[in-house]
Write a structure and sequence with these properties.
disordered C terminus; Arc Repressor Mutant, subunit A; about 110 residues; about 5% strand; two-stranded antiparallel sheet; mainly alpha
């Protein structure tokens, strides 16, 4: 995760510790490699997420109701997967090209 956000590994760990202590995330060791940790949203964040995403989901459902289902949605899924792949490739290349910052404060520039 620290490779995907502009924080050092110790700063990422500190961020996750804080989010976990506030009940926003839950860490789970679900892999045979104990270094891999799965992050899940915690109970304290669910209400706020529902507040935001509930109305958004309604609006998205309303917007999508005007389009013919299966074929168009399948094409859109492929399109979104392609966009996601392009972003992942870009982020991977940027991560390899840009040196990691040794700053641990929140005043880093992108």
């Amino acid at each position: 995760m620290s490779e995907r956000i502009p924080l050092s590994t110790p700063a990422t760990t500190a961020l996750l510790n804080r989010l976990e202590s506030e009940g926003h995330i839950i860490r789970a060791r679900e892999h045979s490699d104990r270094r891999n940790i799965t992050l899940r949203s915690g109970g304290r964040i669910q209400g706020r997420a529902d507040e935001f995403f509930g109305p958004l989901a309604y609006r998205l459902d309303t917007a999508m109701a005007h389009y013919p289902p299966p074929q168009l949605l399948e094409q859109f899924q492929v399109f979104m997967a392609d966009l996601n792949s392009a972003v992942d490739t870009h982020l991977t290349e940027q991560g390899a090209a840009a040196p990691r910052s040794s700053h641990t404060s929140g005043s880093q520039s992108p």
